[in-house]
Amino acid sequence: MKTISFISGRRHVSYLFLLVFYISTTNALAHTNIVPLSATEQQQQTVTGTVTYNNMPMTGVTITVKGKNTTAISGEDGKFSISANGTDTLIFEYLGFKTQSIALNNRTILNIQLEEDVNDLKEVIINAGYYSVKDSERTGSISKITAKDFEKQPVTNVLAAMQGRMAGVNITQNTGIAGGGFDIEIRGQNSLRSGGNNPLYVIDGVPYASDLIGARVTSPEMPMPTSPLNSLNPGDIESIEVLRDADATAIYGSRGANGVVLVTTKKGKAGKTKFIANVSSGFGRVTRFRKLMNTQQYLQMRKEAFTNENITEYPSWATDINGEWPQDRDTDWQETLAGGNAGFTTVQGSVSGGSENTQFLVSGNYSRETTVFPGDFRYTKANVLSTINHKSENKKFTLGFTAGYTARDNKQPSIDFMQEAIALAPNAPALYDDAGNLNWQNNTFNNPLRYLQTEAGAKTYDLLANAQLGYSILENLQLRSSFGFTDLRHKETSALPSTMFAPSTGRTPSSSSLFATTANRQSWIIEPQLDYKISIGKAKLQALAGATFQQQDASQMTQQFYGFASNALLYNPGSASRITTLSSGESVYKYQAFFGRVNFNFAQKYIINLTGRRDGSSRFGPGNRFANFGAVGAAWIFSNEKLISEKLPFLSMGKLRASYGTSGNDQIGDYQYLDTYSTSGYSYGVSGLQPTRLFNPDFAWESNKKLEAALETGFLNDRISTTVAWYRNRSSNQLVGIPLPGTTGFSELQANLDAEVENSGWEVTLRTVNVKTENFSWITSINYTIAKNKLLSFPGLESSSYANQLVIGQPLNIVKSYHYTGLDPQTGLYTFEDANGDGRISEPEDKTAIKNLNPQYFGGVQNQLRYGNLQLDFLFQFVKQLNYNQYYGTAAPGNMMNQPAAVVSHWQQPGDTGPYQIYATDLNDAAITANSQFGSSDAAISDGSYIRLKNISLSYDLPLKWTRGIGCRLSVQGQNMLTVTSFKGADPEFKSPGYLPPLKTITTSLQLTF
Amino acid sequence: MKNIFFTTCFLLLCLSGCDSFTEVELPNSQLTSNAVFEDQATADAVMADIYTKIRDNGLLTGNSWGISNQLGLYGDELDFYGNPLDGSLAFYNNALLASSTEVADMWNNSYNQVYAANAVIEGVAKSASLAQADKDRLTGEALFVRALVHFYLLQCFGDVPYVTTTDYNVNRSVSRQPESIVYGLLMADLEGAVSLLPEAYTGANRARPNKWAATALLSRVYLYEGLWAEASNAASAVLNQTGLYGVETDLDRTFVISSKSTLWQLMANSAGGNTYEAQTFIFFSGPPTVSALSPSLMAAFEQGDQRKAHWTKEITGDNGETWYHAYKYKENSSTGSSKEYSIVLRIGELYLIRAEARAEQGELIGAKEDLDIIRSAAGLAPTTAVTQTDILNAVLAERRVELFTEYGHRFFDLKRADKLDAVLPVTKPGWDSSDRLFPIPATEIMRNRNLAPQNAGY
C-alpha cells in the first residue's frame, strides 16, 4: 500500500510538470491529437487506442490514415485519437520499429503492439554530416552506433563507448587514471607525425577541437595531458557515426584524412513528456598487475648480485640490504599503492517531450569517480544538455538549438603511483611510522606517499552551443545555416609543497612550488548551405552547396609560483616570492571552405555521389593556404534489379559500392611557418627572448588518396546482413616535424616529406538475428578488421633522420631492435646478434630485428539477448598484436629495483641456461649494458594478443503492472570483466608500460521512466 | 520576392569570404627574427636568454643535472646518497648508457645554446640599425658562449661537431671533428671575442662576459692544448688588471656577488634568488639527500687549510656519522636581495693556470709565486715543492682543493694529466678506462649517422 501511494504521489508531481509544459508549448499538442475533420469526409468517426511496445506505452508514434493527410501522434501513456473512415487503414510508424498497417473494419478502438524492427536496417537514416542518406542508398563507408549499443556501458568517455564496436576503428585506453584519454586510429596511421592521426570530431555539426589541453608539468595523467573529449557525456549521445572513405570524408576536405567522428546528441520527441532518471554506482579495480618478486626472492637476488662482484660491505645507498631497512617485511607495492577500489557514482536525469512542431529535451548528469590510489583523490563531472527543435506551422521554417555545458573537476596525485610500485623493493619500510607520520626511515626511504602531499587539480568548463536554421524557399529548395560556438576554459594546478621532501633536505615552504596552467579555447563556425532536390521520373537528383567560416582563438599560459611563507598559502599565487611564466601563447586559427555535393539516383539501383571542397587554412604560409579535395562514390543496388529479385528471392539486399577521392590533414598547430622569437619566461635581469623554432615557410598540405570497394548483402529479409569492404589509403606529401639531430639546436623541423604511406585492409561486419520470437530475441553483431600499414616510398630515407626508424615496405609503427640470441652459458649474460659482425653490439647497426607494433587484426563480437523483460548484452573484443612486455625498461636484475618473479630463474654458474641473466649491481658494466640491450631487443616485445569481455550488462524491466506504468529498469554492468591473454606483463591492451592500466569496473543501476 | 532575397543573401555571404579571411596576425607573444635585431633592447634580451639557458640547463647548470654535480660523482669528488631511481646514480657508478636521458639532455641543451649564439651572430650581422659598438659586443658575447659550450662538449664527449651556423641543412649531417681541429676553432672564436668585447662590464655584477672573461677562457684553452707561453701570457693579461680583479683574502667573500676575484658569473633566476649550486649541495641532516663530499677529497685538504673550514661544512647524523657538503655557496634559498651568483670564471683558476704554464716552461720561481698566492689566501705556508715535477703535482693537488665541485675541473685535470686510470679505480670500483668519455646519445647517432662511431665502451 505504501509503495502505491508513493508512486501515485510521484505521479501527481509529474502531472504538475506536464501541465506547465502543456501551457508553455501552447495548444499545439492538442492540435496533433485531435485533427480537424474535413467537411467532405463521410462516416467520420474518432478512433482511439493505445500503442505499446513490450507492455510499455509508446509515445511519439506517428499514426496516419492511409492515402489521406490526416496524422496524429500517440501521447499520454501511448494513447492516440484520430478521425478516420470505417473503411480506412491506419499506419503506425516509429523509427526503429516495424511499420504496421491496420485496416479499421469499422472498429473505433485499436490497441496496437509495435515490434522492434531488428531487421530493417535499410530504412535507417545515416548522418553524413552535411547531409543524410538512407543506409541502403549510401555510397560511402559510414558506420553507426546508437545509444542502444553503448548506453549499458559504465564509461565516462565517448571513445570508451566506441571501443570494439566498429570495424576499422582501433581505440586504446592510455591510462587508468580518471579523466584520462584514449588513442584512436581510423584505418591506421596515415601520418608520420605522431600527433597527426586524430580524426575530426563534429558534435551536432560543430567541429570540436580534440587537441590536448593543459601542460605536462601541471597534469596528473601521466602518458598524455587532458583530452577535451571527456566533456562529452555518453549518456547524452543518441548516435555516433564514423566516416571513413573518400566518399564520406572528402566533404570535410583538409580535415577528413583520418576519418570523421560525428556525434549526435539526444533530441526531444513529440508526445507525452517523458522523465527519465538513472542512478548507478559501482567500483573499479586494476585488471591485471605484474607478477613481481617477493622479499625472499628479492633479497636473495640483491645479496647474490653483491657476492658476484665480491662486495661484502654493502654501500651506503643499498639501504634495502645494508641494515637500514627491515629484512622481514614483504609488501606487494602494486596492491598497496594501486590496489584500491575506485568508486563510481552517476546520476542522470532528463525531461523530454513536445508537440509535433516543437520538441525539447533537458538533461543533467553528475558523476564522481575516485581512484585506486591511496589518498583522497577524485574526479567529478556535471553537465547539462538542452535542445529545442521547432518547425513552423507551414513546415517551411525549421529551427534546432542545442546547448551543452560541462564542468569537470579532477583531483589526482601529481604522479602515477604505478611507476614506484613496480620498482620499489618489497622489503621497503612501512609507509607510516608509529606516530602516524610519513616514514622516511632515517632519511633512507623515499616514501612513495610523499606524493600524497602533492595534488594535481584540473577544472574544465566547456560550453558547446549550436543552432540550425532552415527555410524552404521552394518545395525542393532549402536554405539552411548552422551556427556553432564552443568555449573551453581549463585551469590546472600542480602543487609541490616542501613536505614532499625528506626532512633532511631542510626544505621549508620557501621552496614550495605551485605550477598553474590556464588554457582557453573559443571557436565559432557558420556554415550556410543550399540544398536542392528534384525527381524526374525514376531519377532523383540532390545537390548541396555550402560554405564554412570558422575561427578558433586559443591561449595558454603556464606559470610557476615559488617560495611561500607557509604551505597553507600555496594556492594563493599572490604570496609566492617568485613567479615565473614558463610558457604563454595565444593563437588564432582561421579556416574557410566551400563545399558541394551532387547525388544522382536512378530507380534506386544506380547511385552516383560527387563531393568536393575547397579549403583554406591559416596554418599554412601565404601561397600554400588553399587546396581542393574531392571524391566520387558510386553504388549499384543489384537486389533491386528485377532479374535478381525474381531469381534470388532470399537476397533481400545486395549492393556494390566503390569510391575514390582525396582528403587532407592540417593538424600541425598554428604559426609554424613563421620565423619568430618568443618570450622564454626566464629572467636574466630582463626577460629573455628565444628563437621559437627552426622555421620553414614553405610547407603545405598533406594529402590522402582513398580508394574503397565494398559489397553489402542482406539475406532472408535481412536477418543476416554482411558488409565486406576493402580499402586502400595513400598518404603523401607527409607533413611532419622531421626529427633532427640535436646539433641543429632543435629536435624537429616542420616540413613536407616526399614519403608515401599506405594503409590497406579488409573490414567485415556480420549481423545476424539468431532468434526472434515475441518473447525471445537474440542478435549477434561481429566486426573484424585486418589492417596493413606500409611505407611505400621515402626518397632519401637512408640519409634522413628516419634512417634508423623506418624501413620501406614496413609499417610506420615498427621498432628496430637487437635480435636476442639467448643467454651465454659461460658469462651468464644476454647475447645478441652482431649483425654487422664488428665484434660489438651497438646501435643502430645491430638493431636489425623488426617488430611491428600495429595490430594484425582486431574486432568485436556483440550479442544482444532479450527474454521478456530481461536483457543481456555482452561484447567481446579481440586484438592480435605485439606489445612491450614487462622486460621493457626494467632495470638489470640485481639492482635496487624489484623484478618480475620469473627472473628468479637466472644464471648462477657456468653451464646454467637461465633464462634470465646473472644478478649484478650497477658496477658490472657488462651486465648493465646487456640488460639495457635486452630491454631494447626483440625479447622485450612479445605477443600481446587478447580476448576481452569488454562489456557485459544484464538488465530487467519491472512489469508495468507492478509499477503502475512507471518504467523501472534494474541493471548490472561490467567493463573489462575478463581477459584471456598470454601476455607477459600487466594489461595487454595497454601500451604505456609502467603506468596505471585500465580498470575493471562493475556498476549497478536503476532507471525510472515515466 | 522573399525567396530571391534569401538566395541573394546566401550567395553574398558565400562570396564575401574571399581569401583574406584566412590571414592571421602575428601573435603578440612573438616577434619576427628580423625585428628582434633592429633594436638594442630586444637583441640584448636574446643574448640574456642564452645565459638563462646556460644557468638553468645543459652542462654548466648548478642544478644536480649539471656537470658540477654529475662529474663530481663521476670522478672522485662526491659520493652518491640520493634515490637509486635518480639518473645521477649511473654517473656515480660510471655506468652511463648511450640511452641515458641525462646525457642526451646535456648534449641537446648545449647545442640549443650554440644555435642561439649562432642566431645572434647572424642576426646582428644582418642588422641595419644596431650601433656598431652593440654589434661588436653582442657578437663578442655570442662567440664567447659558442666557444664555452663547445669547450665543455669537447671535454665530456671527445671529438664533437663544432657548429657555426643556424642552417639545419648543414647541422643535421655534421661530423665529429678531431680534437685538434676543435681546439683551433675554440681559439679562433675566443680570439675574436677578445678583440670584440669591451673591457668594461655590461650591466651590473659582472653577469655579462667582458674582454677579460674571454681572455681567461682562452688562457685555459691554451693550457689544455699545451701552448704554455700563450696560456701564461693570456693569464697575465687578466691578472694585470689589478684595478678590476684580485684574490679575496677573506675566503667567505670569494663566492659572494661582489667578489673581486670573479671574472664572470651567472645571474640568479630572480631578484633575491641565489645559486642552484647551493640548493644542490647543501643538506642539513644526515644521511645526505643527493651527494656528499668524498672522504678522499676531504683528506686532500692539508692541515690548516682554511678552505676546508670555509668552503665545506660538516653535518653529523643521529648516530654520530659525519658527512661534508660543499659550502662555497651558502645561501640555499631566496634572500631579500641576491647574495650569490654562480661564478663560472674566477681569478683563483688563472693563478693556477699561470703556475702550471710557467712550470711547464721551466719558470719554476714564477710558478711557485703564483701557487703560493693561492696557498696563502687559504692560510697555508708556501709550497715545499722544488723540482718541476713536484711543482706540477703541487699545482694539480692545489687545483683539487681550490676548484672542487666547480664545473668538473677535477675530472678534466686528471684526464689531461692522463691520471684517470691511476687515480679513480682506488675509490671507484665501476671505473674502466673507456669511461673517460661520455657516450654520444644513442638517438643522436640514430638521427645523424655521421656521428658514428660511438665512443669506445658504449
From TrEMBL, chain A:
Residue stretches making up the TonB-dependent receptor-like beta-barrel domain: 437-976
The entry's cellular-component GO terms read: cell outer membrane
A Pfam match: Plug
What membrane topology does the UniProt entry give?
Multi-pass membrane protein
> Predominant location of this chain?
membrane
* NCBIfam families xrefs: OMP_RagA_SusC, SusC_RagA_signa
The identity of this protein, by name, is TonB-linked outer membrane protein, SusC/RagA family
- Species of origin reads Flavobacterium noncentrifugens
Automatic annotation (TrEMBL), chain B:
Q: Where does the record locate the signal sequence feature?
A: none
Per the similarity annotation, which family is this? Answer: Belongs to the SusD family.
Which residue intervals define the domain SusD-like N-terminal in the entry?
99-223
Protein name, per record: SusD family protein
Instruction: State one Pfam family annotation.
Output: SusD_RagB
UniProt keyword annotation of Isomerase present: no
Subcellular location per UniProt equals:
Cell outer membrane
InterPro entries (UniProt xref)? SusD-like_N, SusD_RagB_dom, TPR-like_helical_dom_sf
Keyword Zinc-finger appears in the UniProt entry: no
Q: Main subcellular localization, coarse class? A: membrane
Record key words, sorted: Cell outer membrane, Membrane, Signal
